Amino acid sequence: MMKQSEIYRGSIISLHRVGRTNAQIAMQLHISKPTVSRWLQRHKDTGKLTDKPRTNRPPCTTSEQDQQIRSAVERNPLLTSSLRIIEHQNLRCTQQTVHNRFYAMNLHGRKPARRHHLTEANREKRLEYALKFCEKAASFWENVVFLEEKTFYSTDRKATKVWRKNGTRYDAQHVVSDGRSGRIGAALFGGVHASGVGELTDIGPGHITGVKYVKLLEEVFLPSVRLLYLYPSQFFLLQDNSPIHNAEVVKNWFKAHPEINVLPHPPGYPDLNPIEHVWAAMEKTSQ
After folding, report:
1. 42: closest CA among 84, 64, 83, 13?
2. How do residues 84-114 score in pLDDT, each as one tens digit?
């Protein structure tokens, strides 16, 4: 664009030197007559066809106000509103100016991570679980079926933004607790294994119970194992620590199937089950 502008300006001077009027120059170059007059005068006064140097606008916030903006976002990176900052500090600037101050602090607007609340006891049990299984060979995990039921909820949760530095996604102050709207969309049951994905079935209306879970194990889980996993004489099953999974009727069913070894699972976070990644992909696709 700069080179093109310089060519046009040079053309104005050349046409003027050969006797063309301002109107003729404007018509030939498809520009306005005031533009022709301005560059002819600029060339006459300075002998140049360059733009005048521009002076930077003075900042619309003081260093003290910038520090207040920094303090506000550090105090509450999840709920910080640029509009609220402008109103609270009586700033005469746009929201983009406040965002620019964030960027200057190396803060970026990101979608926050979500997770369930964990107690200190939960954390200790998760660590104990990780240390117990972290050195298991790949051959061990290839003999594990990961099983779970999942209820997909509709939600009216508004998008949330957190202002944070890169690499701080899972810092406590940048994470929001997950919540549900309570409007059930669909309840599903399924499993995954190193060799493939098992049958996905609709659990149906109503809450899942121990009796209903046993029916799913018998009519959905076992046929999937026989079909996909060739039903080895012994294999492992990983399911979360839901009270339904620990119901007496469920325990009795597993006792009647000694070929299935149920792995222990710590309370809290279901994310330790890899099938959660499948559910997450399904949720993302459905949005």
Report:
1. 13
2. 777 777 777 888 888 888 888 887 777 776 6
Q: Give the CATH architecture of domain 2-46.
A: Orthogonal Bundle (1.10)
pLDDT in tens, 41-75: 988 888 888 877 766 667 777 888 888 887 877 77
Q: Which residues of 169-191 are buried (b: 16+ CB within 10 A; e: fewer)?
A: eeeeebeeeeeeeeeeeebebbb
Residue type, 249: V
Per-residue pLDDT band for 154 (boundaries 50, 70, 90) equals low
CB-based contact 269:263 (threshold 8 Å): no
Residue 200: how many CB atoms within 10 A of its CB? 14
**Hey, where are the domains in the chain?**
2-46, 63-107, 119-286
The H or E element spanning position 154 is strand 144-154
Instruction: State how far Cα 22 lies from the chain centre.
Output: 58
Q: What is the pLDDT of residue 182?
A: 46
List the structure tokens of 103: 């960027």
The whole-angstrom separation of Cα 43 and Cα 219 is 89
**Phi, psi values for residue 245, rounded to 5°:** -70, -20
Give the type of residue at 253: W
In DSSP terms, which residues pair with 193 in a beta bridge? 196
Eight-class DSSP state of 150? E
**273: number of Cβ within 10 Å:** 19
Tokens of 10: 């040079």
The type of residue at 19 is G
Domain 119-286's class?
A: alpha beta
Q: Which residue has the tokens 């899942």?
A: 208
* pLDDT surpassing 60 at residue 11: yes
- pTM of the complete model: 0.52
CA dihedral sign of residues 225, 228, 231, 235: negative
C-beta of residue 187 within 8 angstroms of C-beta of residue 150: yes
